[in-house]
Write a structure and sequence with these properties.
Mg(2+) binds at residue 256. InterPro entries: aa-tRNA-synth_II, aa-tRNA-synth_II/BPL/LPL, Phe-tRNA-synth_IIc_asu, Phe-tRNA_ligase_II_N, Phe_tRNA_ligase_alpha1_bac, Phenylalanyl-tRNA_Synthase, tRNA-bd_arm. Belongs to the class-II aminoacyl-tRNA synthetase family. Phe-tRNA synthetase alpha subunit type 1 subfamily. Its main location: cytoplasm. One of its GO terms (molecular function) is magnesium ion binding. By secondary structure, this protein is α+β, with helices and mostly antiparallel strands. The protein folds into two domains: 2-86; 106-326, Bira Bifunctional Protein, Domain 2 (BirA Bifunctional Protein, domain 2). The chain has twelve helices and ten strands. The protein has a seven-stranded mixed beta sheet with strand order 1-5-6-10-9-8-7, sandwiched between helices. The chain has a three-stranded antiparallel beta sheet with strand order 2-4-3. Strand 7 (245-252) and strand 8 (255-265) form a beta hairpin. Helix 1 (2-18) runs antiparallel to helix 2, helix 5 packs across helix 8 (224-239) and helix 5 (105-118) packs across helix 10. Bound molecules: adenosine-5'-[phenylalaninyl-phosphate] (FA5).
């Protein structure tokens, strides 16, 4: 019995010395817990004969006291060393510079466009990215057999029973014109920046997900001169003055006359936007009398402007998530 108690104490002291803050309580349970051998010995002492009882009792109780003292000491050691390791930190050292993000070039250009146009009195309007067929096409005078509705150009979300229940990802921001004109009376002056989606054969200047900003002004006596002045104003504002800007005759079902605006980029003309005078039929579709009012509209590709501004050579980089590209700004 005496030898057994001695060896328990030895074993316990060795285990306690090896324990860390987490395993110390396991070690304590192993040597002085309810199921520990020493506890069993202490419990069985009452069955011993009187002289033996006293000897074994004091031996076992002393052993338990020693183990408890060793546990307490180890606990204090561990607490002190934890405290020391905290104190080793030099809190006066400069901190690690946190990695902070930044605005994407597309957001920067969008904000500049908003700045350049709100100072001319344009208000910001929004429309949904999942749009009704009627607003994306019909009201804009884009006939049912127009190639732009083709499944090759359009992401259809729901084929409903008619054009007010069929839903697609908007292919341009022009439906915001319709929503706004249906809800407001002229004079109107709005811009509508946002995401647009097309089933594209992607290349360096064509992405399937890209951003446009629509502009619309409707009032009495609005002419191409107003359109041109506004466009030159915001292109200069974003790209700086002195760029070669070209207005080229074009066709859109919802404007007449229509133009495409190009800017000279790397010795080539890069198309920036479509624009024109709002087609009288579109005005009639939304209940505005074309004899009384006229207007202009434009839809500018925001990534295209960002390409020019930052000298980026591929529009697909904007959504590619390549950190080598993202970190350059
Ligand atoms: C339109 O989307 C017409 N809604 C623009 C418009 C509005 C005309 C109002 C008249 C009046 P278009 O498909 O050309 O037109 O696109 C307009 C601009 O969006 C283009 O000039 C180009 O800058 C940009 N764009 C078009 N497709 C892509 C694409 N796949 N990737 C990146 N930018 C694009």
């Amino acid at each position: 019995m005496e030898d057994e108690i001695k060896s328990i104490v030895q074993e316990a002291k060795a285990a306690i010395a090896q324990s860390d803050a987490v395993s110390l309580s396991v070690t304590a349970a192993k040597f002085i817990g309810r199921k520990a051998r020493l506890t069993q010995i202490l419990r069985s002492i009452k069955e011993f004969s009187a002289p033996e009882r006293q000897k074994a009792g004091s031996l076992a109780n002393r052993a338990r006291g020693e183990i408890e003292a060793a546990l307490l000491q180890r606990k204090q050691e561990l607490a002190t060393s934890a405290q020391r390791s905290t104190m080793k930190r030099d809190t006066t050292l400069p901190g690690i510079t946190p990695e902070i993000g930044h605005l994407s070039p597309v957001t920067i250009v969008t904000n500049q466009l908003i700045g350049a146009l709100t100072e001319l009195g344009f208000e910001i309007a929004h429309g949904p990215e999942a749009e009704l067929e009627a607003y994306n096409f019909d009201y804009l005078n884009i006939m049912p057999n127009h190639p732009a509705r083709d499944e090759w150009d359009t992401f259809w979300l729901r084929q409903g029973k008619d054009n007010k229940t069929s839903v697609l990802l908007r292919t341009h921001t022009s439906p915001v014109q319709i929503r706004y004109m249906l809800a407001h009376k002229p004079p109107l002056r709005i811009i509508a920046p946002g995401r647009t989606f097309r089933y594209e054969a992607e290349d360096a200047t064509h992405a399937s997900v890209f951003s446009q900003m629509e502009g619309l002004m409707v009032d009495k006596g609005i002419s191409v001169a107003h359109l041109k002045a506004v466009i030159v104003h915001f292109v200069d504002r974003v790209l700086g003055e002195g760029n070669q800007v070209r207005f080229r005759p074009s066709f859109f079902p919802f404007t007449e006359p229509s133009f495409e605006v190009d800017v000279r980029f790397r010795d080539k003309w890069l198309e920036l936007m479509g624009c024109g005078m709002v087609h009288p039929q579109v005005l009639r579709n939304v209940g505005i009398d074309p004899e009384e009012y006229s207007g202009f509209a434009f839809g500018v590709g925001i990534e295209r402007l960002a390409l020019l501004k930052y000298g980026i050579n591929d529009v697909r980089l904007f959504l590619g998530g390549d950190m080598r590209f993202v970190k350059q700004f």
